[in-house]
Amino acid sequence: MTGVTEVAKHTSRHQVWRMFDRIAPRYDLLNRLLSGRRDVAWRKRMAAFLNDSPHQTVVDVATGTADVLLTFANASPKVHRGFGVDMSTQMLAIGRNKIARAGLSDRFSLIEGDALALPIENQSCDAATIAFGIRNVEDIQSALSEMRRVLRSGGRCIVLEFSLPSTRFFRAFYLFYLRHFLPRIGNLISGDSAAYTYLNKTIETFPHGEAFCAEMRRVGFSDISAHPQTFGIASIYVGTA
Question: Phi and psi (nearest 5°) for 186?
Fold first, then answer.
């Protein structure tokens, strides 16, 4: 499994990150709108899966506009320091402004970098997270291996990603929304129809549930669990290094 979806086979990795640069100014707004603000609740739920260590250092991969780090700062007293890594310079610029406005620039830093070669030292973090980004990497195994590399023994890998509901009726409704409504709303607000067509296609083709747990198991994570959110339209996956 390389993690390359059918749509991504025809789109270079650098083109994908240029797409995120294009939609950066409307990215947060569209996340809230298209998820009915459930994305906010899902990120808060991620914080509940941190281990019990105090003064934790977190690396957030594909950090985008730094929503995960900012959520952890508010939701968990365990998090002392954090690094966000992303290839989209425009998303990082927005994230840095948000961190500065929150008065957290002394605790959180954003770095331009690749999920497949994280600019983070071995075994230097207590948690490695990624929210809605693992679908966009060229190689799932390499990205997960990098997250495991930077974790201390007992550290947590926490992945939030879209999935598909198991209930037949709700899955049919959700797929109709993904295929017909989401691209139109995304295009209307962002002006970039290709970005939100890409989104729905990657959601439909990405491994979820036990299939994704198997990906984590292959790189050596243990105590792996999957936690469906909001009828299964998203899932949180947790593994221990």
Answer: -60, -45
Tens-digit pLDDT profile for residues 69-99: 999 999 999 999 999 999 999 999 999 999 9
- Phi and psi at 166, nearest 5°, equal -85, -25
What angle is formed at CA 240 by the lines to CA 123 and CA 134, rounded to 5 degrees? 85
3-state SS class at 213: helix
Lowest mean pLDDT among 32-36, 129-133, 226-230, 232-236: 32-36
- Any idea how long the chain is? 241
CATH of 8-164+206-240, one of 3.30.2380.10, 3.40.50.2300, 3.40.50.170, 3.40.50.150: 3.40.50.150
1-31 in b/e form (b: 16+ CB < 10 A) is eebebebbeebebeebbebbebbbebbbebb
Q: Where are the domains of the chain?
A: 8-164+206-240
Name 238's bridge partners: 158, 225
